[in-house]
Design brief:
It is a single chain. By secondary structure, this protein is an alpha/beta fold. It is 45% helix and 12% strand. The strands form 3 sheets. The chain has a 6-stranded mixed β-sheet, sandwiched between helices. The protein has a 3-stranded antiparallel β-sheet with strand order 4-5-6. Strands 10-11 form a two-stranded antiparallel sheet. Strand 7, helix 6 and strand 8 form a beta-alpha-beta unit. Helix 7 packs across helix 8 and helix 10 packs antiparallel against helix 11. It is globular, with a radius of gyration of 21 Å. The N terminus is likely disordered.
């Protein structure tokens, strides 16, 4: 029996990376120039909402601490809201002002993490703050003009409508529920906070845990909790990063690859989320921002090509694949070569 299509892909990939690659002189000058400028780190805004009871308050605060510890490990900027004493302005205004300020501060990714309770009245979903709540429409308006790459994570109950409203091309949106009517207390937020920087959640063993891997690990642990307790599962987390506003559940993935077809010909969810690493590996840290962005773009082109493989002849498919993989290999070769010269 001959190799499967995936095995043939792997053989070609290995051949391309092992073979010598011609590196353009101009590209080398880019990496030298960019290395000294690549100092941007992501900003993580963690909003702890109204607790409702001291028990929930203690849990939410602990989840925020886990995010703070992950940010410290990553060298990321940690911006907490809702953990200090209530004052003026209220938390809603503080959040609006923080998003307005941070949205323009840097070209690096901006993460917004909501920890707490949510509500849904059949029309509008809200995240409960101390004082006036924040709605899906509020966040949509406040984030509309942000030029930064955005990750929005709502770990509250009734959070799914945030995904439907805030999803757009280039964003990653995660919610703890698949519907606004899943209104019970959610545990997904705890498991996501524990997984976001944990090596055990690194499914592809590349030395770093991606946002996708954290989502999958947290979803698995959520299901395990309900199974062990003999209870009906009342929360089903969703991830959307293709802009279609529908989201994908963890049980639609095999490993880190989505196995369901997206509606309307949209690309599948998960690929972009797998490019976000709060705590990057040593090698990932070597990549200057410009080359990392180009590598990510090329990787997305590869997965789009693979998703559309049936549309091409075998020869055409592998010709296109080889071109993309060679370009990715050049980036890695440049990074390794330049790093050796700088030592």
């Amino acid at each position: 029996m001959g190799p499967s299509p995936l095995e043939r892909d792997a053989v070609k990939t290995k051949t391309i990376f092992v073979a010598g690659v011609l590196i353009p002189f101009m590209a080398a000058s880019i990496i030298y120039g960019a290395r000294g400028e690549d100092t941007e780190k992501p900003t993580i805004i963690v909003v702890v909402g109204a607790a409702g009871s001291p028990e929930y308050g203690a849990q939410f605060a602990q989840w925020a601490v886990l995010w703070q510890e992950a940010c410290a490990k990553a060298g990321a900027t940690f911006v907490p809201i809702g953990l200090d004493n209530v004052g003026e302005p209220n938390d809603r205004t503080t959040l609006q002002n923080t998003l307005s300020r941070e949205s323009q501060q840097s070209p690096a990714a901006l993460w917004l993490v909501l920890i707490g309770h949510g509500t849904f009245d059949g029309r509008t979903a809200k995240f409960n703050l101390r004082g006036p709540d924040v709605s899906t429409d509020d966040l949509s308006e406040w984030l509309e003009a942000s030029p930064r790459p955005l990750v929005i994570i709502n770990t509250a109950s009734s959070s799914a409508p945030f995904l439907n409203t805030l999803s757009t091309e280039g964003r990653v949106v995660i919610t703890a529920t698949k519907s606004g009517y899943e209104q019970n207390y959610t545990r997904f937020g705890q498991y996501l906070a524990e997984a976001i920087a944990h090596p055990q959640a690194d499914l592809d063993k590349d030395g770093q845990t991606s946002l996708l891997e954290s989502f999958l690990a947290a979803s698995k642990r959520t299901n395990e909790f309900y199974s062990a307790a003999g209870r009906l599962v009342t929360e089903h987390a969703l991830l959307d990063d293709n802009g279609d506003g529908l989201g994908t559940r963890a049980d639609w993935f095999r490993g880190i690859r989505p196995m369901q077809k997206a509606e309307g010909g949209a690309s599948l969810d998960g690929y972009r989320a797998h490019q976000y690493h709060l705590v990057p590996s040593e090698f990932e840290n070597k990549l200057p921002a410009q080359l990392r962005a180009e590598r990510d773009r090329l990787e997305l082109e590869v997965v789009k090509l693979r998703d559309a493989k049936e549309s091409f002849s075998e020869e055409e498919y592998y010709t296109k694949l080889e071109k993309l993989l060679v370009e990715i290999a050049q980036i890695y070769e440049l990074t390794d070569t330049t790093d050796d010269k700088l030592k």
